[in-house]
Specification:
This protein is of the alpha+beta class. It contains five helices and ten strands; from the N terminus they run βαββαββββαββαβα.
């Protein structure tokens, strides 16, 4: 696996946030290698300026290494900033109890997490690694999720990508169901929370 590929499992991946603009993938890898063997580094970049967006994902060889990194590397100073290292499952850029999570279905079996990231990052900041549901043998089940940092970005993604072709197959893009309910993300209550958080 190259350092740019994204993991297909989240347990071994950590979110590294509050990064100075001078931080590179190599610096993140060098720092995290002190904890355990690093398998992959992904540092999302702005498509226009090519500058990173202040965070990265780091995949370790094992979930234990990832847990250890969260314990010992969180709040470490790097270029004068106290970095954040936590689980991609728990991380949210806007911690207000909502997640503008999109459900992407009818995917070509060849579509991977990195292609989802590259496709949907055009609409806004993706706040954790996209996920594709997979069979035990690793093959795609044809659907996955992407979590953007705002409902405005998610709305644009639905409007522009629903029904569009991705790897020669039209995809369906909608809001995901809120876990444990029959209600979709993007409801009025969540949008109100987002509006209040931005005041």
């Amino acid at each position: 696996m190259s350092k740019h590929e994204l993991s297909k499992t989240r347990e071994s991946v950590v979110f590294v946030g509050n990064l100075d603009e001078r931080v590179t993938e190599e610096i993140v890898a060098e720092l995290m290698t002190q904890v355990g063997p690093v398998v992959a580094i992904s540092m999302p970049k702005d498509r226009v300026s090519q500058s990173h967006q202040g965070f990265a994902f780091c995949e370790f060889q094992s979930p234990d290494d990832a847990k250890y990194a969260m314990q010992v590397m969180d709040q470490v100073m790097l270029f004068g900033r106290s970095i954040r290292v936590n689980s991609v499952r728990s991380n949210k850029i806007n911690i207000v109890g909502y997640a503008p999570e999109l459900h992407i279905s009818k995917l070509n079996p060849m579509v991977d997490e990195k292609l989802l990231y590259d496709t949907f990052s055009e609409f806004g900041t993706i706040i954790h690694i996209p996920s594709i549901a997979r069979q035990p043998d690793g093959t795609s089940k044809g659907f996955g999720t992407v979590c953007l940092d705002s409902f405005a970005a998610a709305d644009r993604a639905i409007e522009e990508m629903n029904g569009k072709y991705l790897m020669n197959k039209p995809i369906t893009v909608s809001y995901s169901y809120i876990k444990g309910t029959n209600e979709l993300h993007g409801n009025d209550a969540e949008r109100k929370l987002e509006a209040e958080a931005k005041r």
